[in-house]
Fold this sequence. Notes:
The protein is about 40% helix and about 10% strand. The protein has about 150 residues and is of the alpha+beta class. A hairpin with a 6-residue loop joins strand 3 (about 115) and strand 4 (about 120-125). It starts with 11 loop residues before the first helix and ends in a 26-residue tail after the last strand. This is Transcriptional regulator.
Amino acid sequence: xxxxxxGEVDCSVARALSVVGDRWTLLVLRDAFxxxxxxxxxxxxxxxxxxxxxxxxxxxxxxGVLRRVRYQERPERYEYxxxxxxxxxxxxxxxxxxxxxxWMTGDDGPPVRLHHETCGHTMTPELACPGCGGTIDPRDVxxxxxxxx
Length: 149
């Protein structure tokens, strides 16, 4: 199977990867979640080339993760804003952040901390079962396939 066909596989992970499955896209999303909206700011923060960033932003817009909004008429200029579908990727980004903080941080500690505005605490995101509230451990979860007609 070719990478450009991965979105056609009957697998939610494969389909998600067809939209957000490269490092540049994840860095664009990281920036979008901290309020970056303009092309040049994405470019400066990610280090991506213009053509590569143009392609990644177009893909995210095409799939409804970002929307392109004109902020200036002459010359025409646009910014990129997260859609509801895009906001749904927040757990993915903060999970990568938490993993990086645990396994990839240098001697100075994590470069970013998350502060929960509601209670004021610094937090590390964790997956929890909506039924019992317990922390999720992959050894305690069993995936089941849907019934096929």
